[in-house]
Write a structure and sequence with these properties.
The protein is an alpha/beta fold and about 170 residues long. The protein is about 35% helix and about 20% strand. The structure holds flavin mononucleotide. InterPro entries: Flavodoxin_CS, Flavoprotein-like_sf.
Length: about 170
């Protein structure tokens, strides 16, 4: 399952590319966070969570409003009060494999920050174990850079390989 937030469409493109990369390993659900709302227990073979970097971190109610003020028309712009932070506050403790990603500006992560760090932290705190380092996919002026969707797809194929090569008993 891939759960994501997206205000201008970049993280959605990445999430869909990740979904495409995972389809050869089984059924994949790619859900905007609003559609994952109310899902308390997460019991999946792999949970991938991603969102845009806002103010060096995961989005907040304030930053999402700023995105909407800037003309965001992505899938999460319709309900900016509910984002990944709120979703993590609602879900129960889990136990399976997981991975975190973000989108951010194409510059040093020291300058931009990375939402995936906060996402990874929350995944661990909820009992999931990360099977890969948090990954960033790069944007410029709220447009995904060329080749980033292809890179997301191959990142996901790598995640799928890790899952199928890990015995179910230690997942
Ligand atoms: C309010 C706001 C704050 C932002 N702050 C940052 C930031 O600190 N670092 C960064 O790399 N990008 C920042 N950005 C750019 C976003 O990362 C970019 O809009 C996002 O990756 C696009 O993804 P989306 O189309 O899925 O919303 C910010 C964007 C907005 C709207």
């Amino acid at each position: 399952m891939v759960v994501y937030e997206s205000y201008f469409g970049c993280t959605q493109q990445v999430a869909e590319a990740i979904g495409a990369g995972l389809t050869c390993y089984g059924t994949v659900h790619v859900l905007p966070v609003a559609q994952a709302r109310g899902m308390r227990a997460i019991d999946v073979d792999l949970l991938v969570v991603g969102g845009p970097t806002h103010a060096h971190a995961m989005t907040s109610a304030h930053s999402r409003e700023s995105a909407v003020d800037r003309g965001a028309d992505g899938v999460s712009a319709e309900a900016p009060a509910y984002g990944l932070r709120e979703w993590f506050d609602e879900i129960e403790q889990g136990a399976g494999p997981a991975a975190a990603f973000d989108t951010r500006i194409d510059a040093s992560a020291l300058m931009t920050g990375r939402a995936s760090k906060g996402i990874a932290h929350r995944l661990r705190r909820h009992g999931f174990h990360l099977v890969a380092e948090p990954e960033s996919f790069l944007v410029s002026h709220d447009t995904l850079l060329p080749d980033e969707a292809a890179r997301a797809r191959s990142w996901a194929e790598g995640l799928g390989r890790i899952i199928v090569q890990t015995p179910a008993s230690v997942r």
